[in-house]
Amino acid sequence: MSELYDALGVGYRRHRRPDPRIAAVIRDALAGAPTVLNVGAGAGSYEPADRRVIAVEPAWTMIAQRAPDSAPVVQASASALPFRDASFAATLAVLTVHHWPDRARGLDELRRVARDRVVLVTWDPEARAPFWLVDDYFPALTEVDRPIFPTVAEFTQTLGPVEVRPIPIPHDCVDGFLGAYWRRPEAYLDDAVRAAMSTFSKIGDPAPGLARLRRDLGDGTWARRHGAVLAHDALDLGYRVVVAARRR
Question: Under CATH, to which class is 2-245 assigned?
Answer without folding.
Answer: alpha beta
